[in-house]
Structure formats: C-alpha cells, structure tokens
Amino acid sequence: MYRQMIILKQGGGEIISGASMKDVPNILWLEEIRKEDISSVGGKGASLGEMASIGLPVPPAFVVTAQAFRRFLVETGLDQKIFKVSDNLDVENNAALEKAADTIKALVMKAKMPAAIKDDIKASYKKMSSRDLIVAVRSSATAEDLPDASFAGQQETYLNIKGEAALLSAVQNCWASLYGARAIYYRAKQGFEEHTVNIAVVIQQLVHSEKAGVMFTSHPISGEPTTIIEGSWGLGEAVVSGSVSPDHYVFDQRTEAITEKTIANKKVEIVPDGSHGTKLVAVDAARQDALVLSDAEVAKLAMYGKIAENHYGVPQDVEWGIVAGTIYILQSRPITTIGKKEATGMSGQSKDAKILLKGQGAAPGTATGKVVIIRDAKDTGAVKEGDILVTRMTNPDMVPAMKKVAAIVTDEGGMTCHAAIVSRELGTPAVVGTKTATQQLKNGQLVTVDGEMGLVYEGAIGGGAAPAKAGGAAPVVVGSAPIITATSVKVNVSIPEAAARAAATGADGVGLLRIEHLILGLNKTPGWYISNHKEEEFVRELYDGIKIVLDAFPGKTVWVRTLDAPTDEFRNMAGGENEPLEHNPMLGWRGIRRDLQSPDQFRLQVEAFKRLWKAGYEHLGVMFPMVSHPDQFTKAKEMMRGWGVDVDNVTLGIMIEIPSSAIMIEDFLQAGIKFASFGTNDLIQYTLAIDRNNENVADMYQPQHPAVLTLIHNAIQKCREYGVECSICGQAGSDPKMAVWLVEHGISSISANIDAIAKIREAVARTEKRIILEAARNRDAE
Ligand code: PEP
Ligand code: MG
C-alpha cells in the first residue's frame, strides 16, 4: 500500500523512491490522508488530512499526489529531458541556472497531461460540487524535513481558480514551479537528488470568510485551559497581520463558560477583490462596534480547539473562518512562541532572568524561540516558523525568512539598518548591534528577545501573550474621539505587505515608500532585468507593489521614493556580480546619482509611475533620494519630461539627506520642488561622519546634535517662506521628543514608523495645543 512505500533518506530530507510509486492513486481525498502520507501529499496535504481525520471542519479538498506528478514526468518522457538540462548544471552560474530553470519550466508547461490524471482531477473537481467551485490550488512539498523557505515557499499557490481548464493549468503551473531557479539552487545546495524530487498539489475549496480570526487553544504562557479567541470581519488576514484590533474572547474549558468578551472598534476588513487577490476596505458603521461572534460560536470554536489540542497533545494556534454560519478550521499548528510579535515590553518576570546580550531595541515586542544562526542568505532554508533569526546583518535576500521568525537578532547595525526597518514593518521584535550574537548564541538554544529594551535573555521568560498578530496596532479605545493634528502624521512603508497595517494606523498618508525593497525582494538587480530584456516584468513588479500601497491610502498622498539601494545590497542578487565593488557604499553609487547615470533604470521606474498616474492614482508623488545639488533635481525632472511626464502637474520633491541640500534649500525651492523631506538617517551620518550601521560608533550617532538641528531648522524656515511642504521620514521622526521639537520649529508633516504613529500623533497634538494655549495666554497678558 502507499503508506509502506520505500523512503530514501538523503541530505536531511525525505525523497520518494521511483520504485515505490505504483500503488498510490493520482488523487487522494483529505479523509483518506494521514500524517504518514507526507511523501505522497506533502506537508500541507498531510496536515490538512490529519485535521479532517479527527473531525475538524476543514474545507473540502483533494490532493494530486506526488506519484501523479511522477507518472506525468515518466509518461511524457519529460524526466529524461529534465535531467539532461539539470545534470551537470553549475548552480553557482546565475545565467546558466536561470536558463535551465526557464527551459525546464517551459517543458513542464508544454507537456500534455496524461489523460488518466486529467480525468481523475476533473472527476474529483466535479465530486466537490456540481457547480464550478472556486478553489485554491497550492503546491505541497513532499520532503518533510526540507525546510519551508527553501522548498514549499518557492512553489506556487493559485487562489480563486474556477473551472476545469483553469484548474488543470494551475496544477501544471504548480508542477512547473518545482523547477524555479531558486528551488533548484537550494536543492543542489542541500544535496537533494534532482531525479527523485517530487511535488503534490492540494486543491481546496476557497473559503471567503465573512468573519475570521485566530485561537489559542490554551493560555500560551501558563498553559491554563483557557481558550483565547480573536476575531474580526472579513478574511482572517486582517487579524493575522494585525491590520485590525479584533474582538477578544476567553473561554474557560473547565467551566465551559465565556469569561471575557471585549469588543474592539473594527475599522477595516480584508475582502476578496474580484476574482484576484484581496483588498482592504472600511467596515460599515453598523458593524464597527458590533460583536463578531455569538456565544454559541465561541463555544463551538473552543470545542474544536480542544479537539485539536487533545489530538496533537500540545496547545494549538488555530486559524478559523466562518461563512454563512458554518465554521471552518483553516490551519492548526503548535504554539511555539510566547507573545510572538507582541507589541508590549517584558513584564516584571524578566528581573531575575539572565541577560545574554545587549544591543539596540530596534523593533518593539518580545518573543521566545530557538536560535537559528544564519551566516549566509543562501542558508535561510534552515529557518522555521517561530525561530529566532540570528545573523551578522540581515539583507533583502533574507526577507522571506524574516517574515517567518518570531524575532531577529543581529551583530551589526543601528536603528536604521535593514534589519531594523524591515522588522518594524513586519511587527517582528528585533535587537540589532549586539556585536557578538552569532558567536555567543548556539543553534537550537532557547532565548527570549526583548525588542523594546534591546536585550536577549536565556531561556523562556515573559509577560502575557495573545494570539499572534503583528505588533504595534494599539488597542482601540471604543468611544474616544480620533486625535486631529494640524501637522500631518504620516507613515513610512517599505514592503507592500505592511500597507494594510500602515493604513490601519489612520495615518495621513505615506511620507516615504522605499521601492528598493520591492526590487530587493525579487532577488534580481534592475540591471539584470535590463540586460535580460525583461523590462516589462520589472515595470510590472514596481507597478503592482506601489499600487498595493496606493490602494491602501485612497485620497491621501503617497510619496514614492526612487531607487536608493547601495551597491552592497544588490551584491547577492542575480545580476549582483556586475555591481561595482565600493569601499564605502554608503557614500557611493546610490540614489538619484545612480539613476541619472543609468537612464534605463530610471526610465523603467518612471514608466511604472506614468502608468499609475494614468490609472488615476493622482495621490502618487515622487521623491528623489540622495540629492546634493539642485541641478540633479532639474535633470531628473527634464528626463521625466522627455519620457512624456507632465512634470509641471505631478508632485516631485526631494529628500534632504546630504548637508549640501539643507544648505542650498532655497535653490531647490527655486528649481520648483513641491516638497522636501528630511532623511535624517543619512543626514545625521553625513553631518557627523558617523556610519549609521556601525555599532562601534552608535553612541555618537546623535539625531539631536546641534549641527543637525541647525540644518533642519534653517531648511524648515525656507520651505515655510516658499509655502512648500516640509516633512521628515528618517527614523528621528519616530521619536516623540524629536517630534515635539519639529512641531515647535514649524514642520508641516512627520512620517513615522507604523509602531510609532500613535505616540507621535499624541506628541504632536499635545505640542500644538501647548503652542496655541501659550499664544492665547500671552495675548491675554498683553
Ligand atoms: C533617511 O536617510 O533618513 C531615509 C529615510 O532613507 P534611508 O533610511 O532609506 O536611507
Ligand atoms: Mg536615506
């Protein structure tokens, strides 16, 4: 039987032997699957099957087995053709790797699916529903202990698939995705045999939840039998990502009673967007303060939680959704972290705990987990959900892994380094600049990270925890009036995934969208796209990423910054071998200087902006980074004009990051900038000659150094004279003390990090009121 198939152990993962394939059918229904069937149905399929088998209401699904895939390869003769391409491939040769991946994917896509497999898929789809059901089609890795990021995460998922033809093509697409360049690379590195690697495909009814959320089946810290449920309107993504403050319910399993019920003010929800993707919309007034779950639903969810916990033997972190009164359990996994991505600091319990390391608290929250030390971005495959990622310094290649971990600790860096910026947006606690984390900590060691205080403790300690949600979303106080400030309080965004959380802060717009993070995440340099004639792909990536942010901020200005990645950040990417080696990339070929000398790279960005403006996104403004002379602004503007932009009617501005631009601000104003924004991260380093990422001089990095403040003060005054918006988007703008100073000196807007918006808004409001009050008192005294 298929459950007794021969398994070959190789390179740490399980690979199905070709000889053992015969008896496994092309299709397995969830009800037939157990966790031992991982080699036929992959990790995802096996865990869904296990949940269904214990009676949890999992949305109906079937799996196209790994064996079906293998039959497809053998019957079409593809296996030989693929091996011909993959054998002797030098995976370190990027161009060859990309070419091989493209060739194999094309072979898989072009091959005719054997009739038997096709018929089985079609019949199973029909069996799900007589109507064409909307399904999700997900790749499911078949090598159990091959880490997620290097395997499952690299294969495709297709949502909103409807109809036989679309389904068959999605399955074939999933198969083809087994041969992505990255996937081939990782397999080669991990010692997996290309000849035997397999893939399964899960086809599951798509649940468009009307309400959804998460549940901790027992108290995550004390282990008490109290089930904690959080829920909100729309798809569960809103709760999981922390875009909304959800309702909170506590159910005591001992007394079977609801002991706590807190209604949150639920301003936004995530709903399906046509047949593709999702969108964030405002919740109508009637539902904002309405209870999401009935008592009966809370009790039923808690009962399912109990079933899962009893079955797996450990407390579970469960995702659920409800459609038309039917509860669905979408995922269940062990609770591995305490207070994962919690926004609050440590409780008093940390007093006696042993501090292992000190650094800078770069992203608030606390988390406990096992250390995984990453010395090279290529090894992030070892990172598992809930781990503590420890590395010298993160780089954009590591972002997929950073999304999974409970906390991040680095040797190097300060408050404005890559790790700090990305962690804050992900809501993942982070401590940077510990100097010795990669030497002192050991793989597998249990530690607790306090991202507020910048401390790493031995073992598991901590305060209260709630179901995982990205930190920073302050609890909404029902009934309180929103704080209105005359100084706009905007938010910084670097990764589109953070757009919903950023919008949920109610910020007055986006004062900085760093688009290099869109590109860095793709793992190919702009130069790669240009030299491989994939310009359209590059433009589309930019367009799609920026659009997500624009959509989240309708009617509010979004300042999109043109590319500003130092050459060293491009180095590990495809095409990175062509980046010049620079002794000091911070002072090197980055920002507008590079774009002006690389017209193709600049033109492609402008093309994305043009399309967005044409599509009606008038609230898009463009900001040029690292500008040191007004001529650069004028030249950039003229190049844009040459490419058909109506430059006099779009919003173009600059960042003030180099002292020369602060000193020459009047010339910039005369050159026609529509706004200026202080990039203090750079302005401080260039004014004080302190490398912003160097932990050895971090204590000399002084945002409020008199020289820096003088530059800022003078530039604000000039902008006010010309009636031009003057803003700040550097990290200093997220410090309430600095915000007070800036308001006192007349800044027009402040753009802060997601986690800092609430406190900045409060600091701004207080300062404005104080200024008004003092003026009134002075008038009265006269
Ligand atoms: C800055 O320099 O302050 C800034 C916001 O830009 P970046 O941190 O991306 O250099
Ligand atoms: Mg900068």
Describe this structure in words.
This protein is α/β, with parallel strands linked by helices. 36% of the residues lie in helices and 21% in strands. The protein is built from 27 helices and 31 strands. Strands 16-23-22-18-19-20-21-17 form an eight-stranded mixed β-sheet. It has an eight-stranded parallel β-sheet with strand order 30-29-28-27-26-25-24-31. A hairpin with a 5-residue loop joins strand 12 and strand 13 (278-282). It is globular. The N and C termini lie far apart (96 Å). Residues 1-21, 144-153, 336-351 and 463-481 have low confidence and may be disordered. The protein binds phosphoenolpyruvate and magnesium ion (MG). Residues 625, 657, 679, 681-682 line the site of magnesium ion. Magnesium ion binds next to helix 24.
Helix content: 25-40%
Distance, first to last CA: 96 Å
Number of helices: 27
Sequence of strands across the biggest β-sheet: 16-23-22-18-19-20-21-17
Structural class: alpha/beta
Query: How many beta-strand segments?
Result: 31
Largest sheet: 8 strands, mixed
Spell out which ligands are present: phosphoenolpyruvate, magnesium ion
- Summed over residues and divided by their number, the pLDDT gives a mean of 85
Q: What is Rg?
A: 27 Å
**Which regions contain 5 or more consecutive residues with pLDDT less than 50?**
1-21, 144-153, 336-351, 463-481
